[in-house]
Amino acid sequence: MTKPVTKKNWLKKISGIAAISVILAGCASQPQAVDEDNDPLEGLNRAVFGFNQVIDTWFLRPAATLYRGLMPPPIQEGIHNMLANLSSPVILLNDILQGEGERAGDTIARFAINSTVGVLGFGDPASEMGYKKHKEDFGQTLAVWGAGEGPYIVLPIFGPSNPRDTVGLVVDYFTDPINIWANNTDRENHMIGRSIVSAVDSRAYYYDAIEDIRTNSLDPYASYRSFYRQNRDAEIMNNDGPKAKKAPNLSFDYDAPAPGDEELTEAR
Amino acid sequence: MMTRRFFATAFLCFTIALSSAPVMAKDFGKEAESFIQTMADKAMASFRSSQDSQTRNIEFRNLLNEGFDVRAIGKWVLGRYWRKASEAEKEDYLKLFEDFIIVTYSKRFEDYSGENITLTVTESLAKNDQDAIVRSQIERPQSSEPILVDWRVKANKDGEKKVVDVLIAGVSMSQTQRAEFVSVIKRGGGNVSALIDALRTKTAELVSDVDKAAQ
Could you tell me which of A140, A144, A137 has the C-alpha nearest to residue A92? Predict the structure, then answer.
């Protein structure tokens, strides 16, 4: 494949994504109870989930086990930090797109400090200086812009998602300056390498939580679905960030159902 | 004169009414905070001291029954199927649910033992004088990122404070458990008995794993 063609394809993809996101943004979100499954494609999703479980058992889980066995925890944390630092440009872009000025400032400060003092992002001295880590992605930006999540879907390899977050995933990939650079300089293996390290890092980072579901859940598929949707809602509300402090009514969701409500007040 | 005094009094009453309501609610928030802190301190003390697993299991059971409204959680987790269940099924289910919670969470409790983890209550918000959310941060020595944990505390009929939900980084454990249980019931043709069977099998399996590990 010659280079101009690649570039054209790339532009085509971007415009395609832009079109999809406009459509998505168009369907105004209805606040949905997390309680409802929102899973019209459950049959297909369960099949893909089964496939992902096989991939996990054969490749990802052994790789993560090995990684955890070989790497001392401080090194694991360093690599985790480095990968997080590399995603700073994407986080910054989405901070800006969401109009989060303070968080954008945090991201810039974090990137500057951790890339230098933190030795290429291996350490996280910025956190100790008060620039707390946070995540943003284009899926969250679309949500802030008012796009609904759409039905729950399980993507092959990538796992739990929905149309909004799938668009987000693609946009994040193509707006990442590191990927753009690698694409334009024929360094595709950089991206492949980063993806593999990221996959193993995430699997190792959440190892205990995943094992927990594996052993304790009566229906892991349903557990992951509930987990994913609740976690995304929390991320969109910036539950893990400083915003929680300023607007407690956003982070403390009283309308969320909890035991003790409804029929539970009767007959104990 | 009369009217002015009347208005002054009315204004005073109004102000008191306005200010006292949040104060009452805030008090429950504070009470809930210290309730969580006390419970956490007990748990941390248990993590740090290196007793045998049997002692820890007993301590865990006590903490769970003291601090959590396990029955209320169990009922809620069944969702709309609670009403559909027969009396015998309800009885069976609640018993199994408690066993299930004890075996799964004591395992998690065990994983934390020997670790120097700290829980810091950061803030609380009371909805009224019997419902509050307490926000805390849990720090583990091997990770620099604190985990945000919210505790939903409610006063039960006897006025005792009980935890009814735990949210880890915004993910409700009760909600997740409900999704899982309801899915099992749906896939079992809407029969609560399907869940009861699955719970029985799972709990037995987990208990035998624990026993094996203990040997």
Answer: A137
